[in-house]
Amino acid sequence: MAGVNPGAGAPLAGLRVIDVANMIAAPSMAALMADLGADVIKVEPLTGDILRQSVQNDPDVPDPYWELDNRGKRGIAVDLSSADGVAIVHRLASTADVLVTNLTVDRMTRFRLTPAAVAAVAPRCIHVSLSGYGTTGPEASRLAYDMTAFFARGGVQGLVADPGGPPSAFRPGQGDHTSALALLSATLAALRLRDTTGQVHPVEVALLQVASWTLASDLSVTLVTGAGPERRPRAQWPTPLTCRFRCAGDRWVALCMPGPRDFWPAFAACVGRPEWVDDPRYATPDARRDNAAELIAACDEVFATASRAVWADRLDDAGLTWAPVQSAEDLVDDPALHALGGLVLVEDHPTGPFQTIAAPFHLHGADVAVRGRAPELGEHSQEILAEAGYARAEIDRLTANGVVGADPPATIDRSDS
């Protein structure tokens, strides 16, 4: 990756992470640890993580979801319903610093992967758990995705929708990737505690609680006042200075100038309505709020007269704070994202190089990078078992008995999944 200092070490070099999780949130946290230099071993069932081939089943094209959240890992396929399979994961944990899972409490108990069970065989391994609603209480075993626990029950979906309208839709993985950052932060703190005090503290993150943190500004007001935040439709927005407007050509801009500087005179001049500065209907914030519907409608008419490119120049020349409302196609071509190093090239995929999304942070001068493609199912099973001390005959027995996925992996059969 450009800018990496070859003389600097990766921040997590020498650490090992066992990823016994599926879908997005917990695996993406482990992928970030791989970016930071950890040796991450992905443990999958013999049929594969359910994220595999969820959006792309063409063998000649990289599977985007799978590659994003499992890049830089080694993979082993293990049948956790067998005693031998559990013993394998316990042995791997005994060589590791972190074991991350999103198994429900019931399944953690069945597979002997609770914090206590892992501590019994791997006292220095930090147990990291991701759930929808926590691991205690009446809903500890409730299945959850970010669409349910984060967006819906977590309040995000309801609070961003227009009043009276249907709940807003969200894109897959938004809540999961946000929760991955909470997982990473807490895990790094637990590693710091272990290494400075010798104490090993399990880590737990719940999608519902992460959602509450993303809404903390609104919720803090609700906790003090007892009332939920005011929600207005865009057509009645209290000020154009924090609203969204459609330009000619059906492209949108979003403005955000909440103060304390008074941007109203500059905005009025920018949209060609300098008389609005002294108009008693709009001259003050309270007046603009009282006449919001009329004012937003007038602004809609103005913005519709020119393209977004024209408005971009006008808004910049006026020194106003704004951004284009972009599509995915716009974003991947955004020069600012490229300047940040936000997209990186994975070069070792059998179908050829492809771009993916970099870690959302920089440690300048340190070796933080996407370290290669995601593993094929069971790709490193035998290698990982040999490293863990299994003899060749034992590896062959585990493979023959269907405890461990064979190398090379078999084709995934999802007919019964």
H-E order: EHEHEHEHHEHHHEHHEEHHHHEHHEEHH
Overall 3D form: elongated
Named CATH architecture of the largest domain: 3-Layer(aba) Sandwich
Largest sheet: 6 strands, parallel
What share of residues is helical?
25-40%
* Strand content bin: 5-15%
Q: Structural class per helix/strand content?
A: alpha/beta
CATH class of the largest domain: Alpha Beta
As laid out across the biggest beta sheet, the strand order is: 3-2-1-4-5-6
Distance between the termini: 38 Å
Number of alpha- plus pi-helical segments: 18
Tally of strands: 11
Low-pLDDT ranges = 1-7, 409-417
Name the average pLDDT. 93
Would you mind describing this structure in some detail?
There is one protein chain. The protein has 417 residues and is an alpha/beta fold. It folds into 2 domains: 16-216 and 336-400, Rossmann fold (3-Layer(aba) Sandwich); 234-325, 2-Layer Sandwich (formyl-coa transferase, domain 3), CATH 3.30.1540. 38% of the residues lie in helices and 12% in strands. The protein has 18 helices and 11 strands. The chain has a 6-stranded parallel sheet with strand order 3-2-1-4-5-6, sandwiched between helices. Helix 6 (146-152) packs parallel to helix 9 (207-214). The longest helix has 24 residues, at 174-197. The chain starts with 15 loop residues before the first strand and ends in a 17-residue tail after the last helix. Mean pLDDT is 93; it is low at 1-7 and 409-417.
